[in-house]
Structures are given as structure tokens and as C-alpha cells.
Amino acid sequence: MFSDRTNWKLTRNRFTKAWEQVRAARREVLDLTISNPTRAGFDYDQAAILAALQSPRAMDYDPQPKGLLEAREAVSGYYGEQHATTELDPEQLILTTSTSEGYSYVFRLLCNPGDEVLIPKPSYPLFEFLADLEDVKLVPYPLLYDHGWQIDFPSMPKAVSPRTRAIVVVHPNNPTGSYVKPNEQDMLNGFCTEHDLALVVDEVFLDYEGARERCGGTAGGYCRYIFVNECADSVGGADFARTAEEYAEAAS
Ligand SMILES: Cc1ncc(COP(=O)(O)O)c(C=O)c1O
Predict the structure, then answer these.
(1) What is the DSSP letter of 120?
(2) Is residue 52, in this structure, part of any structural domain at all?
(3) Is 9 among the domain residues?
(4) Is the pTM of this model over 0.90?
(5) Model pLDDT, residue 174
(6) For residues 115-145, b (16+ Cβ closer than 10 Å) or e, as one string?
(7) 60-111, pLDDT tens digit by residue?
(8) What's the burial of 174, exposed, middle or buried (CB within 10 Å: 0-12/13-18/19+)?
(9) Which residue, among 53, 194, 23, has the nearest Cα to 222 in the 3D structure?
(10) Ligand 1 center to residue 204 CA distance, Å?
């Protein structure tokens, strides 16, 4: 009855079973997987938030496909302040309800059914499901641990094929906490230019306390990159329409 695309193996794993047992026993648990900010004990300015919901402006229905311009301007301003080197035109930003929705747009934008995207291994397990939903095939490229985690560049040419459309980097990465070093960024840029690939830079953890200092800022220095971040769950791109030739010209 259902498509092959969602024919996932959904059996419960050991963690899920243990979690169910703990919940059934009503034991108190410190759940470090909570990602719902309203349940993580933050102190919000409730009065200001509730007052905003009562604003008469809320009665004006004004749908904007990329997200409200004001909100995109706020995101752009945030990047201007927090990532001083990044200039973002609000018109190049798209607000989504989650990174997952952002990925669905990115995969649809870049890939035809059966096209391939390179992803780091180990990394975020949900990528598999997000790619399946868009009929995209993920091909892993290894991160190796040798005095710290690093991209295994010698294995990259083996991972790439005529169907490869993009490389995903996660900066800093989940679960290794490693990040893209400046020399790796140069190599990625060169590799993407050579193979005509987009670079998708997932920086959802870059705004965490101390991460930016440790990672040296954004990893999105390539002209054909799309970044995915969670300051407001946005998908942005810099000069994405420029061609590899234009990049080579700009770089020379
Ligand atoms: C690499 C990576 N990207 C994105 C996300 C967040 O996804 P979403 O915004 O859909 O919850 C996570 C969450 O763990 C992640 O590890």
C-alpha cells in the first residue's frame, strides 16, 4: 500500500526499549535528547511573547513564501553581528520550520531521483530518512580519527560518481564534535569546483556556547554553498547561481 520510499525498518532498538521501561516505571530522568526549547527550562520573557500574539498586525494575513521579510532581516542582522564576516542578503534566506524541512528543499533543489549526495560518516542518522523521502541516495565519506577527527580526502574520489550533486559537511559535526579545518575547507572548495558540486554546510551547532571560537567561524566560504542553520531554521545560499567558471575566475 505504501511507497518503497518509506519502507523503513521500524523495529524498536535497545535504547527505545530501555527508554520505555524507564518511562513505565515513572522514574525521574534527565533527558539530554530534548530539543524542544519550551521544555528545556529556559527563562523566556513570557509577557513580551504573549503580548506580541495580541498585536493587531497578526490580523493581517500576509503569507510570504520565503518567510516574513522582517524575520529574514533579523536573521541577516544576527549573522552580521555574530558572524562578522558573513554578509547575508535577506532575499537569499529561506525560513523553514526545521532543518529537516530545509534539507528537503535542498535535496529537491539539487537532485533528480537517484542522484547522490556525499555525507560524512559518522554523522547525523536522520540524513538517511530525509534523503529517502526525496529519492536521493546518500554515499558516505569517512571521517577518520588520527590525532583528532579529519576528513578522509583520499577516499573522496572513490565516493564521487557522475550522479553526485553535493557534499554535506556538518560543522561542528554530530556526534564527533569535530569541525572543518581551514585546510579542509580549501580542499573541499577545490573538490567541489573540480566535480561541479554544491557544498551544503550544516551549522546547526555553530551557535552553541564556545563552538564558534573553537571552529573558527562558518565553514561556508565556497561560492556555491548552501548553509543550513538553526538560529531560526534557515536555509541560505551565497551566490549560488554563480558557475564554477565564475568561481575559478573570482579566485584567480
Ligand atoms: C547535523 C544535524 N542537523 C540538523 C539537526 C536538527 O534537525 P531539526 O531542525 O530538523 O530538528 C540535528 C539535530 O540533532 C543535527 O544533528
Answers:
(1) E
(2) no
(3) no
(4) no
(5) 92
(6) bbbbbbeebbeebeebbbbbbbebbebbbee
(7) 999 999 999 999 999 898 888 877 656 788 998 999 988 999 999 999 999 9
(8) middle
(9) 194
(10) 7
Atom of ligand 1 nearest to the CA of 123: 1
Q: Count how many domains the chain has.
A: 1
Which CATH number goes with the domain that contains 151?
3.40.640.10
Distances (CA, A) of 79 to 66, 85, 176, 183, 233: 17, 8, 25, 23, 13
Nearest CA to ligand 1 atom 7: 99
88 and 75 Cβ atoms separated by less than 8 Å:
yes
Cα–Cα dist 117/127, whole Å: 10
What is the whole-number distance in angstroms between the Cα of residue 226 and the centre of ligand 1? 15
Q: What percent of the chain is predicted at pLDDT more than 90?
A: 61
The predicted pLDDT at position 252 comes to 42
- Residue 184 lies in domain: 62-251
Helix 126-133 to helix 99-110 angle, to the nearest 10 degrees?
50
Longest dimension (CA), the chain: 65
